[in-house]
């Protein structure tokens, strides 16, 4: 009857099953990634075969990886990562070499022929960006020290993957010189795109984003547009270079990461994280489900025993390699342990490398199945290790201490505690700022207007650009640990959410426009609800009373006082000096 | 990388810079998307984007559904503002007429009529946000008119789902639509909180669950053979909820929505065949342009005119009526949904489709301009006598003793106005209240001795209030034009005004006001005092809370119900 293009059922089925298994995982305390991957296995041709990879799901899963890396890029402030750059390079290169040797050797031992073993070695070197970063983000550990190490190593691995993919995609190389050229080109391209991103973050982006930051929708979409620009360029770099007779590839993940990195250096990145996060969650879900959607059972299971043996050998090997290398770089026991335990899986890039190798005619489909199974299996197991990494560390701490050197590497970020949080900078709250600054070591102001943030930072306050509704922002200002909170929002839902989150010892001032809202807020634990309209009404009627009763002196003094206050030009009036008897209640 | 990813990339790459430019000039985003589509349409094939675009439509309607305030429906019905919806009928029929006159088929003409009659919530409400927040009459009027129009749009989508109005289809459609709505209510009441409890603190799962719910409703609509838009709307109603508990969810949905809705509008733009460009004939182009021009005139000129006339007839002040009408002078994004649906069903020829889309883009831009210069437009019209309020209404609704003199004129009966009236009554000081919101007419009349229901911008209102003989004018309205107007009346009386920001306040003092209240300043003072008391130990937190609560209850006893 209705002839409009039907929305394909595939995506709906993926959504529904993902939700179902997601809730199941949540109920049973399992990580959601596992649930998604298993859902893919069940839905795909290996089991039920009711969902095929459609163009839409393919797009969404591609976007999932791209957005995940974009989001990760947004979180990387260069000044915060700089101090771990050197150790990261020193860890990642030997790590890949060691794991390659282990992987290739093991494959030979398992009966694969030398070429296959070589490629399997290349494919197992990397840890999974998707799993590690997703888990770190979920656990809010992406910017912790071990998080930074892991992310850094993953990125170096990513560059290596890109290079290897480029070489493989070019087909069987004629000689070593060709491999070397491809390598050189890819490295130059990565360098170019990095320089472009950093240049943009110094020149173009601050101007553009300052203009649009006050409009939520435009801000978000322009940021997305920026990400797509990099995705598009990296993906089509081959087309751009073709006229020059050069053949080269870059991954869209790399592009997305660089786009994010450029934005991360701006003051608006916090707000953007929260806007990009939900889209990423949705798309990444599709990515994990579709990991197993492509595979026939026969291919997947042809070498299942070998895959299990390989997984059981490779995971401890990876852990030990990482553990030794991170410890060698002088990090403390906990960082070393957590940084290593997170990285024991084989990456989804392993599957991609194998897939490209298969298409290039290097390996049989069964080897691809083996790699897929290996990746899924190790990802699945490693998710549990990441989930319980802290518990494991506590359990094995004495043993670990015996084997590691003394950590001398300093790092990590400062956290707020017993500080004051001010939500929204306006003519009301600004009066409180100097008082709070006298009393508290840290006063953090959250505001959504760029010019306010700049003025506040000039005055030496910690100012965070963003919307208090966003959980990242709430976490960043550490509302839970604040000793004093002042909100200038009159929206009851914002204030109620605030009251829910603050600790019992915090003093809370909020604003409201309506009596019933004020009542609710007191019930919810507010200590003072400022009601601007009523205050103004009281004051006005007081003046009018004086006016009508011809109490001229009182009136004139009061009015002059108000007008003098009005005329005070500076941004932060020294209210201490001026107010004799401020409240007129 | 797939062809689709390339298309989506190009789409966003084209849109980004245009958005930056448009934002510079404070233009709404929807026309930007359409233009980006027209530009990008030369490179990308819109057909492969259609499925994504459909998710955009679904999310657009879905988020509209989540924001529906059932109390608002009731108050619109009660306020009698439904009468303003008469303009839909008038403008709609004119649209159909023009369509037929231009020689397009009657079915297609219906779509032209719908396009002309419905206004855009996204554009209109976004532009009006300040006025709505301040509770001004025109803000409330415009948003409730748009609200009713949106509901009508959903109904139209439901009924036009088959491309024609066949009776057989209509019956199924209505039955299916009702079933979906019922399901939505049930889910909202029984299932939603259970999902929330299950998801616990995980925003990810909550968002996933809600998107799945959307997919189920959309699937059900598809299965029942009615438009997915209706399913999406019902799904929105199903998750309608107080946002406090689900801040993460609603924020997350907003991102997802913004992403897909952009794709939808850009795709629409990409479907348009632009006149005089590409493989389109000269005569065809002219025909299309004529239709576009007709629609633009109808929407940007005739629609506000008709609406103003109706509102004035209903007793609204000429100014409020004109300003409210000037914010609904664009084509709705829902009309775009209706158009694309009909186009894909082949109920609409590409010529008419293109005309509707182009006219929508044009009117959304002109609308933001007319909004920016609304005060000037009204002045120009009023000075030429084109619009004038009806004094008999003002006379009928007002109640001022003939011999009143040496009195105080109070402008606005909000919280401040109410408090001021209370003070004057205590002091036995005669006063007149000027209030321009007919919805507050009864309360003002009941509670105040002397009332003029009229607009403070109009001289007749002041005449009526006998301002010449007043000793004092107290304006409680935070509006620069009104404040300026009062000062320019040249009255002997002293004037106290209200201002929303420091700069305006100082200007008004310079221009001769006795006193200008700036509520934020007072609140800031009081806040600083209270914090100092706390820090100095003069007051404990608990004492502060108790004092404040007592103060609140004291106030509550005095405040009339409608202001609480």
UniProtKB/TrEMBL annotation, chain A:
<comment type="similarity">
    <text>Belongs to the monovalent cation:proton antiporter 2 (CPA2) transporter (TC 2.A.37) family.</text>
</comment>
<dbReference type="Pfam" id="PF02254">
    <property type="entry name" value="TrkA_N"/>
</dbReference>
<dbReference type="GO" id="GO:0016020">
    <property type="term" value="C:membrane"/>
</dbReference>
<keyword id="KW-0812">Transmembrane</keyword>
<dbReference type="Pfam" id="PF00999">
    <property type="entry name" value="Na_H_Exchanger"/>
</dbReference>
<feature type="domain" description="Cation/H+ exchanger transmembrane">
    <location>
        <begin position="16"/>
        <end position="381"/>
    </location>
</feature>
<feature type="transmembrane region" description="Helical">
    <location>
        <begin position="307"/>
        <end position="326"/>
    </location>
</feature>
<feature type="transmembrane region" description="Helical">
    <location>
        <begin position="217"/>
        <end position="234"/>
    </location>
</feature>
<feature type="transmembrane region" description="Helical">
    <location>
        <begin position="118"/>
        <end position="137"/>
    </location>
</feature>
<feature type="domain" description="RCK N-terminal">
    <location>
        <begin position="421"/>
        <end position="531"/>
    </location>
</feature>
<feature type="transmembrane region" description="Helical">
    <location>
        <begin position="149"/>
        <end position="171"/>
    </location>
</feature>
<feature type="transmembrane region" description="Helical">
    <location>
        <begin position="59"/>
        <end position="76"/>
    </location>
</feature>
<feature type="transmembrane region" description="Helical">
    <location>
        <begin position="6"/>
        <end position="25"/>
    </location>
</feature>
<feature type="transmembrane region" description="Helical">
    <location>
        <begin position="183"/>
        <end position="205"/>
    </location>
</feature>
<dbReference type="GO" id="GO:0006813">
    <property type="term" value="P:potassium ion transport"/>
</dbReference>
<feature type="transmembrane region" description="Helical">
    <location>
        <begin position="367"/>
        <end position="386"/>
    </location>
</feature>
<feature type="transmembrane region" description="Helical">
    <location>
        <begin position="88"/>
        <end position="112"/>
    </location>
</feature>
<dbReference type="GO" id="GO:0015297">
    <property type="term" value="F:antiporter activity"/>
</dbReference>
<dbReference type="GO" id="GO:1902600">
    <property type="term" value="P:proton transmembrane transport"/>
</dbReference>
<feature type="transmembrane region" description="Helical">
    <location>
        <begin position="338"/>
        <end position="361"/>
    </location>
</feature>
<feature type="transmembrane region" description="Helical">
    <location>
        <begin position="240"/>
        <end position="264"/>
    </location>
</feature>
<keyword id="KW-0813">Transport</keyword>
TrEMBL record, chain B:
<dbReference type="InterPro" id="IPR006153">
    <property type="entry name" value="Cation/H_exchanger_TM"/>
</dbReference>
<protein>
    <submittedName>
        <fullName>Potassium transporter Kef</fullName>
    </submittedName>
</protein>
<dbReference type="GO" id="GO:0016020">
    <property type="term" value="C:membrane"/>
</dbReference>
<comment type="similarity">
    <text>Belongs to the monovalent cation:proton antiporter 2 (CPA2) transporter (TC 2.A.37) family.</text>
</comment>
<dbReference type="InterPro" id="IPR038770">
    <property type="entry name" value="Na+/solute_symporter_sf"/>
</dbReference>
<dbReference type="InterPro" id="IPR036291">
    <property type="entry name" value="NAD(P)-bd_dom_sf"/>
</dbReference>
<feature type="transmembrane region" description="Helical">
    <location>
        <begin position="141"/>
        <end position="162"/>
    </location>
</feature>
<feature type="domain" description="RCK N-terminal">
    <location>
        <begin position="408"/>
        <end position="515"/>
    </location>
</feature>
<dbReference type="Pfam" id="PF00999">
    <property type="entry name" value="Na_H_Exchanger"/>
</dbReference>
<dbReference type="GO" id="GO:1902600">
    <property type="term" value="P:proton transmembrane transport"/>
</dbReference>
<feature type="transmembrane region" description="Helical">
    <location>
        <begin position="289"/>
        <end position="314"/>
    </location>
</feature>
<dbReference type="GO" id="GO:0006813">
    <property type="term" value="P:potassium ion transport"/>
</dbReference>
<dbReference type="Pfam" id="PF02254">
    <property type="entry name" value="TrkA_N"/>
</dbReference>
<feature type="transmembrane region" description="Helical">
    <location>
        <begin position="82"/>
        <end position="104"/>
    </location>
</feature>
<keyword id="KW-0812">Transmembrane</keyword>
<feature type="transmembrane region" description="Helical">
    <location>
        <begin position="207"/>
        <end position="239"/>
    </location>
</feature>
<keyword id="KW-1133">Transmembrane helix</keyword>
<dbReference type="GO" id="GO:0015297">
    <property type="term" value="F:antiporter activity"/>
</dbReference>
<feature type="transmembrane region" description="Helical">
    <location>
        <begin position="168"/>
        <end position="187"/>
    </location>
</feature>
<feature type="transmembrane region" description="Helical">
    <location>
        <begin position="110"/>
        <end position="129"/>
    </location>
</feature>
<keyword id="KW-0472">Membrane</keyword>
<feature type="transmembrane region" description="Helical">
    <location>
        <begin position="52"/>
        <end position="70"/>
    </location>
</feature>
């Amino acid at each position: 009857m209705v002839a409009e293009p039907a929305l394909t059922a595939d995506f709906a089925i993926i959504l529904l099953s993902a939700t179902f298994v997601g809730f199941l995982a949540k109920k049973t305390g399992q990580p959601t990634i596992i649930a998604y991957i298993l859902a893919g296995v069940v839905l795909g041709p290996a089991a039920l075969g009711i969902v095929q990879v459609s163009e839409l799901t393919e797009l969404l899963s591609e976007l999932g990886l791209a957005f995940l890396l974009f989001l990760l890029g947004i979180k990387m402030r260069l000044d915060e990562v700089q101090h771990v750059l050197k150790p990261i390079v020193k860890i990642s290169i030997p790590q890949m070499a060691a794991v390659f040797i282990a992987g290739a050797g093991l494959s030979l031992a398992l009966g694969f022929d030398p070429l296959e073993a070589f490629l399997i070695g290349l494919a197992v070197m990397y840890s999974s960006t998707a799993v590690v970063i997703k888990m770190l983000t979920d656990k809010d550990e992406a910017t912790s020290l071990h998080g930074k190490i892991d992310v850094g190593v993953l990125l170096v691995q990513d560059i290596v993957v890109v290079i290897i993919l480029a070489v493989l995609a070019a087909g069987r190389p004629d000689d070593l010189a060709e491999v070397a050229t491809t390598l050189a080109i890819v490295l130059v391209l990565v360098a170019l795109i990095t320089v472009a991103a950093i240049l943009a973050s110094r020149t173009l982006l601050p101007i553009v984003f300052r203009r649009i930051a006050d409009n939520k929708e435009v801000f978000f979409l322009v940021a997305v547009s920026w990400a797509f620009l990099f995705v598009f360029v990296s993906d089509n770099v081959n087309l751009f270079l073709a006229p020059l007779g050069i053949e080269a590839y870059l991954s869209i993940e790399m592009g997305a990461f660089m786009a994010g990195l450029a934005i991360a250096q701006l003051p608006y990145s916090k707000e953007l994280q929260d806007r990009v996060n939900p889209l990423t969650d949705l798309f990444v879900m599709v990515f994990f489900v579709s990991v197993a959607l492509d595979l026939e059972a026969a291919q997947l299971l042809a070498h299942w025993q070998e895959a299990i043996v390989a997984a059981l050998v490779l995971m401890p090997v990876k852990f030990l390699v990482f553990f030794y290398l991170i410890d060698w770089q002088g990090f403390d026991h906990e960082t070393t342990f957590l940084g290593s335990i997170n990285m024991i899986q084989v990456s989804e890039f392993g599957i991609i490398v194998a897939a490209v190798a298969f298409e290039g005619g290097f390996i049989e489909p069964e080897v691809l199945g083996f790699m897929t199974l290996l990746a899924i299996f190790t990802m699945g197991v490693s998710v549990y290790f990441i989930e319980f990494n802290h518990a494991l560390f506590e359990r094995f701490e004495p043993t670990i201490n015996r084997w590691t050197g003394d950590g001398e590497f300093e790092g990590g970020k400062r956290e707020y505690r017993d500080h004051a949080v001010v939500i929204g900078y306006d003519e009301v709250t600004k009066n409180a700022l100097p008082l709070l600054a006298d009393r508290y070591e840290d006063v953090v102001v959250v505001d959504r207007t760029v010019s306010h943030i700049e003025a506040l930072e000039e005055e030496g306050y910690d100012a965070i650009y963003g919307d208090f509704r966003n959980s990242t922002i709430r976490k960043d200002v550490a509302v839970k640990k604040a000793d004093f909170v002042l909100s200038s929002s009159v929206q009851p839902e914002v204030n109620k959410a605030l009251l829910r989150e603050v600790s019992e010892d915090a003093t809370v001032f909020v604003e409201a426009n309506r009596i019933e809202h004020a009542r609710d807020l007191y019930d919810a634990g507010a200590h003072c609800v400022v009601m601007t309209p009523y205050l103004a009404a009281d004051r006005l009627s007081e003046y009018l009373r004086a006016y009508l009763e011809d109490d001229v002196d009182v009136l004139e003094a009061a009015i002059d006082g108000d007008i003098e206050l009005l005329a005070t030009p500076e941004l932060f009036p020294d209210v201490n000096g001026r107010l004799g008897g401020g409240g007129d209640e | 990388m797939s062809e689709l990813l390339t298309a989506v990339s190009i789409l966003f790459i084209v849109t980004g810079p245009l958005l930056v430019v448009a934002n510079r000039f404070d233009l709404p985003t929807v026309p930007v998307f359409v233009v980006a589509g027209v530009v990008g349409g030369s490179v990308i094939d819109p057909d492969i984007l259609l499925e994504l675009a459909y998710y955009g439509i679904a999310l657009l309607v879905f988020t509209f559904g989540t924001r529906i305030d059932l109390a608002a429906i009731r108050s619109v019905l009660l306020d009698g503002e439904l009468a303003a919806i008469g303009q839909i009928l008038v403008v709609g029929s004119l649209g159909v007429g023009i369509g037929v006159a231009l020689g397009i088929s009657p079915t297609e003409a219906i779509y032209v009529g719908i396009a002309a009659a419905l206004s855009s919530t996204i554009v209109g409400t976004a532009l009006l946000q300040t006025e709505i927040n301040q509770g001004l009459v025109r803000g409330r009027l415009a948003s409730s008119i748009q609200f009713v129009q949106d509901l009508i749009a959903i109904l139209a989508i439901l009924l036009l789902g088959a491309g024609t109005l066949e009776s057989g289809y209509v019956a199924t459609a209505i039955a299916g639509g009702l079933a979906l709505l019922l399901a939505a209510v049930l889910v909202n009441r029984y299932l939603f909180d259970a999902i929330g409890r299950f998801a616990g603190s995980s925003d990810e799962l909550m968002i996933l669950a809600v998107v799945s719910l959307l997919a189920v409703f959309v699937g059900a609509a598809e299965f029942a053979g009615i438009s997915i838009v209706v399913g999406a709307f019902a799904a929105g109603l199903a998750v309608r909820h107080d946002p406090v508990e689900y801040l993460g969810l609603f924020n997350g949905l907003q991102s997802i929505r913004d992403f897909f809705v952009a794709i939808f509008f850009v795709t629409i733009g990409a479907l348009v065949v632009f006149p005089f460009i590409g493989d389109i004939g000269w005569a065809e182009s002219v025909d299309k342009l004529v239709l576009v021009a007709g629609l633009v005139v109808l929407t940007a000129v005739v629609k506000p005119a008709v609406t103003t006339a109706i509102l004035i007839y209903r007793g609204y002040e000429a100014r409020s009526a004109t300003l409210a009408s000037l914010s609904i002078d664009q084509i709705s994004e829902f009309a775009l949904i209706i158009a694309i649906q009909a186009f894909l069903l082949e109920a609409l020829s590409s010529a008419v489709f293109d005309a509707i889309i182009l006219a929508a883009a044009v009117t959304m831009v002109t609308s933001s301009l007319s909004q920016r210069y609304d005060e000037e437009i009204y002045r120009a019209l009023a000075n030429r006598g084109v619009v004038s309020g009806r004094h008999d209404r003002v006379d009928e609704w007002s109640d001022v003793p003939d011999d009143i003199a040496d009195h105080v004129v109070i402008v606005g009966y909000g919280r401040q106005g109410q408090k001021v009236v209370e003070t004057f009554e205590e002091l036995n000081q005669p006063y007149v209240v000027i209030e321009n919101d007919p919805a507050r007419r009864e309360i003002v009349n009941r509670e105040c001795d002397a009332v003029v229901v009229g607009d403070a911008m109009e001289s007749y209102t002041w005449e009526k209030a006998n301002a010449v003989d007043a000793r004092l004018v107290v304006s409680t309205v935070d509006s620069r034009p009104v404040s300026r107007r009062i000062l320019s009346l040249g009255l002997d009386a002293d004037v106290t005004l209200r201002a929303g920001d420091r700069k305006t306040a100082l200007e008004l003092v310079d221009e001769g006001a006795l006193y200008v209240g700036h509520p934020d300043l007072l609140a800031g003072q009081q806040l600083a005092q209270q914090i100092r008391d706390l820090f100095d130990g003069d007051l404990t937190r608990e004492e502060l809370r108790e004092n404040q609560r007592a103060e609140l209850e004291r106030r509550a006893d005095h405040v009339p119900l409608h202001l609480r």
